Structure formats: C-alpha cells, structure tokens
Amino acid sequence: MAISDTFDAAKAKVSLQTSVQRHVSFKDTAAVQKDDSRMRLLMAVGLFAVIYAVIGLRLAGIAMFGELDAGNPYGSSGVSAARPDLLDRNGEVLATDVKTFSMFAEPRRVLDADEVVDGLATIFPDLDSDAVRKRMASDRGFMWLKREITQEQQRAIHRMGLAGVDFLNENRRFYPGRETASHILGHVNIDNEGIAGIEKHIDGQGLSDLQEAGLQMERNLEPMRLSTDLRVQHVVRDELTKAMERYKAIAAIGIVLDVNTGEVIAMSSQPDYDPNIPAQALEKERMNRATAGVFEMGSIFKTFTTAMALDSGKVAINDNFDARRPIRVSRYTINDFHGKNRVLSVPEVYIYSSNIGTAKMALEVGIDGHKEFLSRLGLMDRLRTELPESADPQYPSKWSQISAMTISFGHGISVSPMQTAVAAAALVNGGKLIPPTFFPRSKAEADQLAKRVVSQETSDKMRYLMRLNVLKGSGRRAEVQGYRLGGKTGTAEKVIDGKYSSTVRFNSFLAAFPMDDPKYLVLVVIDEPKPEKEGIGATAGRNAAPTLAAIVKRAAPMLGVMPRMENDAALGIPQYDVPSPAR
After folding, report:
1. Which range scores top for mean pLDDT: 10-19, 96-105, 424-433?
2. Percentage of the chain modeled with pLDDT above 90
3. Cα gap 227→221, rounded to integer Å
4. How do beta strands 251-258 and 264-270 pair?
5. Would you please indicate which residues are annotated as catalytic (active-site) residues?
6. For the CA atoms of the chain, what is the radius of gyration?
7. How does DSSP assign 331-369, residue by residue?
8. Residue 48 burial (C-beta neighbours within 10 Å; 0-12, 13-18, 19+)
9. Does the chain have fewer CB atoms within 10 Å around its N or its C terminus?
10. CA-CA distance, 469 to 305, in Å (whole number)?
C-alpha cells in the first residue's frame, strides 16, 4: 500500500544515513566476522547517531510549538496531518482533505493578554476568555486558540495586529456526500485522525504512525479506492429514507453485496449522520446497525435451516412435513402465523413460511448438526470486516430442543444484518462463504479466500426455493419484471418488557438477483414499521419487500444487470417437479 511505502521511506530518512558510516568491506566477510570489537563500535556509533537525531527532532518540535499540553481543551499541539483521498469504485471522491486555518498563541511573545482576549472575543463570542487569559499568563511556548477557522475570521484577526498570535495551515477532512456513506467512511477528530469506519481502519494500516512521527504533512498519499458504488449507495439511502417516512419506522438498514467477490457495494443504516459534523455520531439512534447491531432476523433464518436440512442429506426437496397441529414442548407452543393446517412439502414449508415445518426440519438434523451448520456459515462468531464497528452474535449458552426449534425460524438468536447477508450469499453463489470487504476484490482473489459451506446442488435448490417464494409466496411484492429476484421475508416480533410483542416488529427481506446467475444480494430491514393504511398488516411482505424491489429497479441497471423477459426455465433457473402432498 502507498501508506506503508511512505512510512518505510520516512523511517529511512530518520535513521540519518547511519548505514553510510558502516564502511565495513563486504569483500572480506571472514575478516569482518573476526573483528567483533570493531563491529560493536560501529553499532554503538550508529545507535548514538539515532538517539541524537531523535533528540534533535524533539528540540526542533519544542522550538516550534513548545511542550505538548495534554490538558489543552483546544486540542493537541500537533498539526493535523494529511490523509489519502477515499474514492468509490468508479473514482468518485468520498472523502478528501481541504486546507484550513488554525490560530495559536505564543504566550512568551504576547505583550497584552487582555488585548488579545478582548479582540478574539469580538470574533468568537463563545470563547472562554477567563481560561484563555489564565493560559496566556504561563511561560509556555505554544497554545492553540482556535482550530479550523474561516478565511474571513483569519483576515479579521490579522488586521488586529495582535502580538504573539499567529496562524497555521492545517488539513481538514471534508466529505462531499455528507450523510450518503457515513457509516462506511466513518469520520476523523480535530487532529484529522480516524476514529470510526474506514477512516479508522486506514490509520491502523500505518497512517497513524506517520502522523505521530510528524512525517506526513503534505497530500502526497495515493488515493484509496473502496468497493462502494456511490450511485447505488445513494439509491439505497434514498429508498430507506422514503420507507421510514412511509411506514413511520424508527430505523432502516440496506445492504448490497456482490455474491461472487464479497465486495460491499452499498450499506446504509438510518438514521445516519453527517461525518462533517462528527458530534452527530454520538447520538444513540445514529449507530451503525448494519454491522454493530444484532437482531433476531425472524423467518429469514428459515433459508439457513432449509439449506442445512437439504445439505445434510436427511431431508429431500420432495419430503413432506405435517403442519396440521402446533408443536408443544413443555410450556412452549409453536404455531404458524398463517397456517395451512395440512401436510406441507419442503417448498410449501418455505413459501408459506411454516414455523412448524421448519422446526421439524431442524429436528431431523439434530442440535449438534444445527449448531455446526450455523457456525459453518459464520453466524456464531463476530463478523470481521475493515470497519471497527462490529458486534458479537447472541444465542443460548446451552441449546435445548426448544432452542433448536425456535432458532430454526429466527427466534432466540441475534446476529448482525451484514452477517445475515454474507451467510445468505453463500447459499446462492454455488455454496462458497466469502469474507466481506469494503475494498475492491477480484473474483480470483475471492476464490482464494472462499470456503465451501454447502454443495452446488444445495445452492441450486435454494435458488429454486427463493425464486419460488417471490413468484408464489410471501415475497410476491418484491418481484421486479425482468430481473428474476428470489428471496425470503422475515417478520420478527420484538421483545418488549421481556415478552414478544405481536404488534412491534423487526421486518426484513433478503433477495438475490438474477437467480439464473446470481450476482448481487440485497437485504432490507425496516425497524418497527406501522401499517401503511388503516386495516392492513405491517408484515415484511408489505413494507420490506416493496422497498427492496424499488432499490433493485433503480440500482440493477447501474450495476450492469439488464432485464430479460424469457421465462425462468429458458434462462436456466433450476426447476424441480415437487408434487403437493395429498390434502
């Protein structure tokens, strides 16, 4: 990376060319090895040279800025270093540095502290005059007065001619898209140090070391390109914002993932924030729910349970399960939301979202097999991405039979939406679990990281079932003509005061397209939606599914997926002859 290369060059400069002093002749290696005392002497000379260089740099810093002041409420005494531009996958600027003025004082040179404080107060009414006057009375060599002031403010202060007051040009981070990709990009502090999102990630790749050494002041770093497509990111955010307003929801999440590379094309968590105003990120409702929140994802988990059952070989796609009566275990009862009250085939269990049928499939595999499969999909461990914001999944420490049954349909286990999307992508891309990334990645690179979690045959069957659900099941409102979507709804009851509520829901819809050759996976979550109209329900099929359809309709052409009007069989979407059970 450009950052690490720059850091290596900087370290070579700091060494003050001590290696030049080591004029040992390499032509006579044997003689050098014998002369231990001479080698130790040269090493000592080199060591002292480095020590004196560090001391020299330190003295130079003190001469310029005085001693660092850890208690300075106006920021540290370090000048904001430059950062690399962040670009989307098409080269659009997501984050860049702009030059700004910062005002400082040298108390030793201040002739009249009252004049300085009174003059500054006319420009900055919020200035803590007493604190500044007290600090001016010290014998310090440097103190910040105000960071990131405007050019007009700088000119006004300059005209006052205040002795001991001067200005420095600094770097200030600017996000031209404002809220559009805030939870991906993160933000920086007043010293231009990354403290969230990708901004914090790149500091951990060597940039912060350069900044601490004071060796990265100019904008000479190569731009860093992300996997994000700014156009698709805008579409996702726009549709989520509309959905929150339409359904009077408290939050919404949207993810678009390339199923063959693991690249995150878009990710939005609403409400979001403006990274140009970092203080907004501290508001609880603006957290990144996509990777740092964990939730019960509801019936979306039936996709994982069905894939597990089929891949285990213990359940075939033409098997039947009796869903005529509720399952009672101890004091618990498992019912179907819209029960058919009859024997259901595996496809019917899926498209009618039968809790009873899904729980019975999980029991066929067994508790140990169930836990192993979810672990295989990465749903039992924290998902690691370049974003520092992530959360551990939550599930029972001890799985009982009732735990296995409820987890089979998404109750009793909480995972992040990004984890859900990554695991589901493996079920439609041929069976390969690919770690997600916010940086560009080729398919060849992804194949090196991929881990097979289900067979190609199981993946084909899941594509069939997901497509069938959009054509005939709970996902009908997600259909977008020509784009061959397949997906699954999730309507999870939220826990309120320790009990599941029948009216407060966490709704989601998960879909991939085009199902003849899946390229992208989309996940939409609507948190606590209200009925759009009086007298109708507020299930995922009525809000999350149409929101996802709106995203695909606008974003698919941007991603190069063109509509095709042939029927599914002609396009090669898997077809299975599964007769309905006798009624």
Report:
1. 424-433
2. 58
3. 19
4. antiparallel
5. 299
6. 30
7. TEEE--TT---SEEEHHHHHHTT-HHHHHHHHHHH-HHH
8. exposed
9. C
10. 15
Q: What is the DSSP letter of 413?
A: -
Q: Using alpha carbons, select from 141, 166, 148 the residue that is nearest to residue 61.
A: 141
Closest CA to 512 of 492, 533, 487: 487
Q: How many whole angstroms separate alpha carbon 125 and alpha carbon 538?
A: 51
Which one-letter DSSP state was computed for residue 17?
A: T
Residue type, 455: S
Rounded Cα distance between 105 and 132, Å, is 10
* Assigned token pair, 271: 């409400």
Two tokens at 189?
């502090």
- At residue 126, the 3 state secondary structure works out as coil
User: What is the spatial distance between Cα 168 and Cα 192, in angstroms, rounded to a whole number?
Assistant: 15
DSSP 50-119: HHHHHHHHHHHHHHHH-S--TT-TT--SSPPPP---EE-TTS-EEEEEEEEEEEEE-GGG-S-HHHHHHH
Tokens of 225: 């390109």
- Indicate if the pLDDT at residue 166 is higher than 90: no
Q: Is 323 within 8 Å of 348 (Cβ atoms)? A: no
- Round to whole Å and give the CA distance between 494 and 504: 6
**Comparing C-alpha atoms, which of 107, 104, 207 is closest to residue 157?**
104
Assign 187 to helix, strand or coil: strand
The Cα-based distances of 345 to 109, 321, 427 in angstroms read: 86, 6, 20
- Residue 313, pLDDT > 50, answer yes
Write out the DSSP string of 296-307: --GGGHHHHHHH
Q: Which of 435, 430, 433, 437 is nearest to 451 (CA)?
A: 433
The overall average pLDDT reported for the chain is 84
Looking from the CA of 427 toward its CB, the CA atoms found within 13 Å total 36
Tell me the one-letter amino acid at 461. K
What phi and psi values does residue 561 have, to the nearest 5 degrees?
-100, 110
Q: How distant is the alpha carbon of residue 354 from its chain centre?
A: 32
pLDDT at 13: 41
Of 219, 288, 330, 249, nearest in space to 532 by CA: 249
| pTM for this model (two decimals) | 0.79
Q: How far does the chain reach from its first CA to its final CA, in angstroms?
A: 64
Lowest mean pLDDT among 51-60, 218-227, 313-322, 375-384: 51-60
Position 44 scores a pLDDT of 63
Separation of alpha carbons 191 and 65, rounded Å? 15
- 439 near 369, Cβ under 8 Å? no
Distance from C-alpha of 109 to C-alpha of 161, rounded to nearest angstrom: 13
The token duo for 298 is: 């509801």
Long-range contacts (CB closer than 8 Å, 24 or more residues apart) made by 213-220: 213/10, 213/14, 214/57, 214/61, 214/78, 214/81, 215/7, 215/10, 215/13, 215/14, 216/6, 216/10, 216/81, 216/82, 217/79, 217/81, 217/82, 217/171, 218/82, 219/82, 219/97, 219/171, 220/6, 220/82
Over residues 68-96, the mean pLDDT reads 70
Which tokens sit at 263? 């690249």
124 CB burial (10 A radius; 0-12, 13-18, 19+) = middle
